[in-house]
Every structure is written in structure tokens, then in C-alpha cells.
Design goal:
about 180 residues, three-stranded antiparallel sheet, about 35% helix, binds iron/sulfur cluster, globular, single chain, two-stranded antiparallel sheet
Length: about 180
């Protein structure tokens, strides 16, 4: 099915376009996650991080996680050619962790440019979103998102310097969860 370009502010059906989107971003992208994303999923789902995380080779040598298992990045697991949290029923799609989904999912397909909310230049999303509707909510979210990634990058650097490949991925996960928990107090 080819998707029409819909403007979110004047959709005739009143249906949110993501619900019926088949070129779904949740199928096409690998969702890399940071410490806060992992913490929220772990807390809300009451599941071990390893049950929803996939291990990838590091994209960025300097910011990859150094553990016994190698130089890694962490992303959400996939299932049936899409994110494991994507549920399909009668051609409708739903994120089963919508209230606490990773920050990159929340912000897609927007970014800030010169202090203004814009759609990403390189996006596979077929919808022409009216950014004015999201400006306030998204600018707050994108700022928080940036801070959480900065926090995570610092944690990875600290871990690599202190422990590196001497310790395992399980130990790294415990380290980041403890540090986010400390922040939350
Ligand atoms: S953000 Fe775009 S690509 Fe992603 S589900 Fe919604 S309409 Fe589809
Ligand atoms: S967590 Fe939800 S929004 Fe993010 S990729 Fe998975 S199904 Fe899509």
C-alpha cells in the first residue's frame, strides 16, 4: 500500500496517521537506547533489560560500551521484521509501550533547527506534519532527550575508563540502572 501525505491538522478521518502507517518507522529503524530509556522500560515492564535489548557492534568507536563481550551499542529487540513492542491487529498498529517508549521514538520525525521545531530532512515518514501543533511539547521533549543522551555518553565513558572489557554487559547494565535510580531520588 502506498501512503498518502496527510497533514495532521486537517486529516479528514480524524485518525492519527501512525495507527495505519505501513511504512512504519517502528519496522524500518533500529532503535538505539540510552540509560534512561532502559531504566523506564525495565521499571514499567518489570523485565530484565536483556529481555528487550539487542546487542549491536558499536557505531562510534569512542562511545561504544567496552565489556567482556566486545565493543557494543544497545538497541531494542526486533520481532517479525519490526520492533518487539509493535503490535499489529487488523491492519492497525500500536506501540505497546507508548507511555514509556524510548526518547527517539517520542521525537520522531522532528528535530530542532535554529531554535525552531522542524521535520527531519532525511525521513521515511510519509506524513507532512504541521509542526506548529507540536512545537511546545516537542521542544521540551527534545531538550530532555538531548540531556539524557549526554548523561548516557558520560556514563559510557566513565565505565570504559574504570572497567572496560574487565567486566560484563550484565554488570554494565546494573551500573547504568543504579546511576539513573540515583538521579531519580
Ligand atoms: S511517525 Fe510517520 S512513519 Fe512513523 S508510524 Fe507515524 S506516520 Fe508512520
Ligand atoms: S518502542 Fe514503540 S514507538 Fe518505538 S519502535 Fe518500538 S513500537 Fe515503535
Amino acid at each position: 500500500m502506498t501512503l498518502k501525505v496527510i497533514n495532521n491538522s486537517d486529516s479528514k478521518t480524524g485518525e492519527f496517521p501512525c495507527v495505519t502507517c505501513e511504512t512504519n518507522c517502528c519496522k524500518e529503524y533500529t532503535i538505539f537506547v540510552n540509560a534512561h530509556d532502559i531504566y523506564r522500560l525495565h521499571q514499567k515492564l518489570k523485565k530484565t533489560p536483556k529481555s528487550f535489548l539487542d546487542i549491536w557492534g558499536a557505531k562510534d568507536f569512542d562511545l561504544g560500551i567496552k565489556v567482556k563481550e566486545g565493543l557494543l551499542d544497545l538497541a531494542l529487540k526486533q520481532k517479525d521484521g519490526g520492533c518487539m513492542f509493535l503490535e499489529e491487529s487488523k491492519d492497525m498498529f500500536r506501540c505497546t509501550v507508548n507511555d514509556f517508549k524510548p526518547s527517539v521514538c517520542k521525537s520522531y520525525p522532528f528535530q530542532m533547527k535554529k531554535g525552531k521545531l522542524v521535520q527531519m530532512t532525511e525521513k521515511l515518514c510519509p506524513v507532512d506534519w504541521d509542526t506548529r501543533e507540536f512545537e511546545s511539547m516537542m521542544s521540551t521533549h527534545l531538550k530532555k532527550d538531548e540531556e539524557e543522551w549526554e548523561f548516557y555518553d558520560k556514563l559510557v565513558l566513565e565505565w570504559n575508563e574504570k572497567f572496560g572489557e574487565k567486566k560484563s554487559l550484565s554488570e554494565f547494565l546494573k551500573f547504568i540502572l543504579d546511576r539513573v535510580a540515583l538521579e531519580e531520588i
